[in-house]
Amino acid sequence: MRQKTSEPLFKDIFQYGSDAIVILDDKGIIIDANPSIEMLTGYCTEELIHKMSLCDICHGMERCADFTVCINCFTTLESMSSFKIRLLHRKGHIFSVSASTTRLPQNAGGFLIVVLRDMSEYNKQDQKYVQKKMANYMIQAQEGERKRVSRELHDGVGQTIYSMIVGLNIIEQMELENDLKSHFQLVRDMAVQALSEVRHISVDLRPSSLDDWGFVPALRSFIKQFERTYGIVTRLSVVGQERRYGASIETALYRICQEAMINAAKYANIDTLEIHFEEQDQLLYLAVIDLGRGFNLEKIEVMGTGLGLYGMRERAKLIGGTLKITSGCDHGTTIRVYVPLGKEEEIIHDH
């Protein structure tokens, strides 16, 4: 009874299964194959059955980085749960598949059933995962280096210049000839300017307020600097309670907002800028809105000049968010970022 029930079930699996299944005789010749073999290898069943062996299109088992070509291995191979082999596609390219084999008992023919699964989609997913991990690692390394250099500028070079200014102030109080005194004043003013530039560069590299106080306070500080530098009135609206988020989220939002603001200042020809930030229903929303000249987004993408836009998108992706850009000539530009939040305790423990 069980055998009668299982036979049609096996036929359905054989006929409609997504994995390719081939049945080999004791010489390795394909005596049957399901339709999925064509999707996998490009060979139709008529070309394979009783005409080819699996060894004809097999380029060996994979062994770590290299592979071993096995002559007629399928004639002696017993049941194996999972291993990788390289197959030759009908179009000429070689690709990897996952294989498993089952040897039927002699009273059932002694045939070898080989199940082949396409690994290309899995490999693509693995590659995407590795690329994401590498991108995340690169951004974290970059931010870490920014933080280190910023601290060295502030605590090292900045303090040295400050000490020089103090020394020059002391010398300036001494009785000096007018020419010498004016020279000291000039040198002191240059040192003050150098200290200001060092502090400016230090903040640009990695604002300490981002680590100490979080995204919104760091953004407010940057807005003040931005207004002094570009003369653009910037309005920030924050909806909801201000609080800390994960370091990766805060860094990504800050860098995206910083990039969007600087792009607007450089290219949009504006005198005002609006920024909106809110948290609602476990979703963060950030928008940078200008009413400037705008641009043709498709043209920018095609020309390959949108590196800043690409960087913003990648940063959003790495924190599980999405970035949307709407723009048009003389219609301004709006950059929106949506970031879903995880569990509350995860957000808190990230700091």
From TrEMBL:
Catalytic reaction annotation: ATP + protein L-histidine = ADP + protein N-phospho-L-histidine
Stretches assigned to the PAS domain: 6-59
GO biological process terms, semicolon-separated: regulation of DNA-templated transcription
UniProt PTM: Autophosphorylated.
Name this protein carries in UniProt: Sensor histidine kinase
Keyword annotations from UniProtKB, A to Z: 4Fe-4S, ATP-binding, Cytoplasm, Iron, Iron-sulfur, Kinase, Metal-binding, Nucleotide-binding, Phosphoprotein, Transferase, Two-component regulatory system
Residues found modified as Phosphohistidine: 154
Subcellular location: Cytoplasm
Needed co-factor(s): [4Fe-4S] cluster
Free-text function comment from the UniProt entry: Member of the two-component regulatory system NreB/NreC involved in the control of dissimilatory nitrate/nitrite reduction in response to oxygen. NreB functions as a direct oxygen sensor histidine kinase which is autophosphorylated, in the absence of oxygen, probably at the conserved histidine residue, and transfers its phosphate group probably to a conserved aspartate residue of NreC. NreB/NreC activates the expression of the nitrate (narGHJI) and nitrite (nir) reductase operons, as well as the putative nitrate transporter gene narT.
Gene3D superfamilies xrefs: 1.20.5.1930, Histidine kinase-like ATPase, C-terminal domain, PAS domain
Enzyme Commission number, as recorded: 2.7.13.3
Pfam assignment, any one: HATPase_c
Molecular function via GO: 4 iron, 4 sulfur cluster binding; ATP binding; iron ion binding; phosphorelay sensor kinase activity; protein dimerization activity
NCBIfam families: sensory_box
GO cellular component: a single term: cytoplasm
Principal location class: cytoplasm
Cofactor note: Binds 1 [4Fe-4S] cluster.
InterPro entries noted in UniProt: HATPase_C_sf, HATPase_dom, His_kinase_dom, PAS, PAS-like_dom_sf, PAS_fold, Sensor_HK_TwoCompSys, Sig_transdc_His_kin-like_C
Binding-site list for [4Fe-4S] cluster: 55, 58, 70, 73
Domain Histidine kinase: 253-343
